[in-house]
Amino acid sequence: QVQLQESGPGLVKPSQTLSLTCTVSGGSIMSGDYYWSWIRQSPEKGLEWIGYIYYTGNTYYNPSLKSRVTISIDTSSKQFFLKVNSVTVADTAIYYCATASSGSYPTFDYWGLGTLVTVSS
Amino acid sequence: SYELSQPPSVSVSPGQTASLSCSGDQLGHKYTYWYQQKPGQSPLLVMYRDNKRPSGIPERFSGSSSGNTATLTISGAQAVDEADYYCQAWDTNTAFFGGGTKLTVL
After folding, report:
1. Which of B42, B47, B55 best tests the A interface by mutation, with the highest count of A CBs <10 A?
2. By the 8 A CB rule, do A50 and A62 touch?
């Protein structure tokens, strides 16, 4: 069973870049079975899909965040990454990495425990 | 943007049937997914593609979808089922989540 672990700074200043890492274990990050995803959750916006990446490097983003978000992958280290530029307090949330089973209608099968990121000066 | 609407709360007595609804435009023509989230935990997939139950999810969970509404049904709800439930669907290659329903079993 795939296991996911988020890591990164818990506090980011406004206008700076939020950077998170998700480490994959229990499965191959090069498996064509999954898209590697980022989802966030806040009291204000609820659950919000950020985007995902395939092991080939192909990315798919939520249009509402696309201009500020970059997802990348390093298959050798079994990690994928999230960067959100120009953050504001509205980006304060619990950030989850998750698997999305590949196909036309992906299912978010496995989730990490989540990491809280607070945007504050 | 695609909107999914869920009632904020539903209450049910133990052993009774809980019906959690999720509404969206032409939702019956899309697949609906359901996630259970307990306090301090990550969401857990409990139903996918309208009515498919993942391995390990009890048979008392079932799903259906028609028209503009999808429904997650918990037959014989138990105290352990008390949680927030979120529906999710895909529209124009973007995943959208409902605002969630807090299920209280008491």
Report:
1. B42
2. yes
pLDDT tens string A9-68: 999 999 999 999 999 999 889 888 899 999 999 999 999 999 999 999 999 999 999 999
Are B70 and B32 in contact by the 8 Å Cβ rule? The answer is yes
Q: Is B28 helix (H, G, I), strand (E, B) or coil?
A: helix
Which of B91, B97, B101 to probe the A interface (max A CBs under 10 A)?
A: B97
Q: How far is CA A116 from CA A29, A87, A96, B41, B56, in A?
A: 24, 14, 9, 12, 28
State whether residue B33 sits within 8 Å of chain A by CB: yes
| A113, A95 Cβ separation under 8 angstroms | no
Exposure string for A80-94, b = 16+ CB within 10 A, e = fewer = bbbebeebeeebbbb
pLDDT at B20: 98
Q: Does B63 touch chain A (CB under 8 A)?
A: no
Q: How confident is the model at residue B12 (pLDDT cuts 50, 70, 90)?
A: very high
Residue A113 contacts B, CB cutoff 8 Å: yes
**How does pLDDT run across A63-118, given as a tens digit for each residue?**
999 999 999 999 999 999 999 999 999 999 999 999 999 777 899 999 999 999 99
